[in-house]
Structures are given as C-alpha cells and as structure tokens.
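ESCALATION

Customer reports they have been waiting on this structure for their group meeting. Please prioritize. Original submission:
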Amino acid sequence: MTMTVDRTAPRDLATEVPARLSLTPKTTLGGQLDGAWWPQSRDLEAELPPLAAALAEPWGRITRVTVNPTHWPVVPRMVPVDGRTLHVGWFTEQDPDKLILLSYTVGRWDLLVIPPETAPAAASRLMTAAAIPGSVLTASVLMSNEAAIGRRIRDAARREAAWEGEGGACMSPFGAPMGRSALPLPADGWR
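Update from on-call: job pushed to the front of the queue and completed.
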C-alpha cells in the first residue's frame, strides 16, 4: 500500500472533523482497553489533533502518544496541538492495533485503533466491543474476531446469493442443481 502525505497544505482537522471515539464508561472494572478510535486517515499528524481535542475534557491534556508503525506510513516525532507539542513515539513491540495515550496528571489510556477503511457496520461492532468495561480482550483479539465475523457475513451473503441465483433449487449430492423432474417420486406417484 502506498500513501502520499501532503505536508504543504496546512490543515486544522480538529475544527473540520470531530474524532470518532467510543470510550469505556467510568467504572471500577479495569479492562485491556479504554475504548476505540476510528481515524479518518492514516496520517497521524492530521489525526492526532482532533483526538487530543476530543479527549481534553474527559481525560485532561494528552502529552505523549505511542503507536506501532506497522499501520502508519509516517510517524512524526512531534505534532502541534493547540499551541503546544504532542510527543509521538513508536514501538514495534506494541500491539499494532492499539494506541497508547499518556498524560502527566491523569495517567495512561489504551485505545483500539480501527483502520480508516473499515466498513461502518464493522467499525460500530469494534467500537462497542472495545468500550465494554472490564473486557479482557486485547486490540489484536478484537480485530481478529471482527475479521472472522466479516468472513462469516460474506460467506452467508454468498450462499444466499447462490440460493437465489438457482431459484432456490435443490442441489444434487454432486453439487449440481436438480430440477423437479429429477426428484424421486413419492409412494403415491405425485410430485
């Protein structure tokens, strides 16, 4: 996958598009994740300001972010956010589907990062699952579960389309559609 990032055009995404977030409600149950984030693109420099702005009220000022560079074509060291600098680090050991946010005053939060190209229905399922209080599922487990769910949905749709394309015909044991005349006659001789 190739991505071109235009660094010449100044953009203030924090005022253009709000961050798509789902946060775990405040509770005593600690889980693996504190919610999910569904960015609009894979451009961290453009995506982090709206995320930091959206989290300023519930979590305080975010000072540092860490990512795994697997899904991000460019990982900037610093990103300007509201007249200050947000430090960005990367670790290949970190779960590639997770973003870690740090604050001096409040602590650490782990968010599932939903790929920007994810279908809305799948993103909705992932955002809901990541925000369940006390969940023991990691970001990678949630993403692999969603991949399996997506495969099952596609397979079911393909089977239904095949059924409809055959006119709901019965299949022979050899995989070919059978017409009514190929069915064995019942004992009374009527079909």
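Sent to customer with the following note: DSSP finds four helices and nine strands in the chain.
Escalation resolved.
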